[in-house]
Amino acid sequence: xxxxxxxxxxxxxxxxxxxxxxxxxxxxxxxxxxxxxxxxxxxxxxxxxxxxxxxxxxxxxxxxxxxxxxxxxxxxxxxxxxxxxxxxxxxxxxxxxxxxxxxxxxxxxxxxxxxxxxxxxxxxxxxxxxxxxxxxxxxxxxxxxxxxxxxxxxxxxxxxxxxxxxxxxxxxxxxxxxxxxxxxxxxxxxxxxxxxxxxxxxxxxxxxxxxxxxxxxxxxxxxxxxxxxxxxxxxxxxxxxxxxxxxxxxxxxxxxxxxxxxxxxxx
Length: 267
Hints:
Blueprint: H1 3-11, H2 17-28, E1 32-36, H3 40-43, E2 46-47, E3 54-55, H4 58-64, E4 70-73, E5 79-87, H5 100-112, E6 115-119, E7 126-130, E8 133-136, H6 140-173, H7 179-206, H8 211-221, H9 224-235, H10 241-252, H11 256-259, H12 262-266
Parallel strand pairs: 1-4
Antiparallel strand pairs: 1-6, 2-5, 3-5, 4-5, 6-7, 7-8
Helix pairs in contact: 1-7, 2-4, 6-7, 6-8, 7-8, 7-9, 9-10
């Protein structure tokens, strides 16, 4: 989950004109294929169609999607540049999709790195592709439900972390800290961080509807990343900000099972 992926979710979030246009196409069950970006890598794969070059409006996207061809938008999604075009990606690029529209979208996304959106006529879902990323947009009520569950989990994890930190502080005053005490704090820092990162995904996908979730997450998380760095600097063999950030990034790649391995974490 990198920054480019989060930005792509924000582009497609509820409340944007683009999402309104896509939802209109979805409800009409006409299907559609939309490419965001007119960079040279994309235009080399375009054949036929016409160039309306109009300001983007949800109603215009809906009307143009009635045709079989793809629609190409500007990078800022403010203009409709081409419509009813045929896209010819490299057929040797592997694709595990079944429909022609989705296979084309996946291959264009992998070949050009552009964001490509496929609206399924039969399954009634919106899928976007970018590079090797494939993501199905979910209904807003589903995301809100998952976000609320994540907030409850974050509240419990944050409470456990605060208790561990208070215990560590008391042990430091008595000079009785063990490696196990530090490892417990590290585990809980990472657990809180993982829930926060998951909430970032939900907030980006919710768009304007995610304001309250964002405020609650910020209140619960606080400055957990900075506190975790300080702990690593205090107890790390090498210490230093650069080393601590490297270790923090490494921990983020561990599986949940590996994170519970006290010996590995201590090392």
